[in-house]
Amino acid sequence: MTIHLVTDSTSDIEQTRAAAQGVTVVPLTVDFGSQTYRDGVDLDNKAFYEKLASSAVLPKTSTPSVEAFRTAYEQAIANGATGILSVHISGALSGTLNTATLAANQLTEDRDHAKKPAVPIRLVDSRTVSAGFGYPVLLAADRAKAGASLDDLATFVQRISEGSKTLFLLDTLEYLQKGGRIGTASAIFGTMLSIKPILGIRDGLVVPVERVRTRGKALTRMGELVRAIGPIEYMALAASDDGAATDLLNVIKPVYDGHIEQFKLGAVVGTHAGPHAAGVFVMPQQ
Question: How many CA atoms does the CB half-sphere of 278 hold within 13 Å?
Answer without folding.
Answer: 22
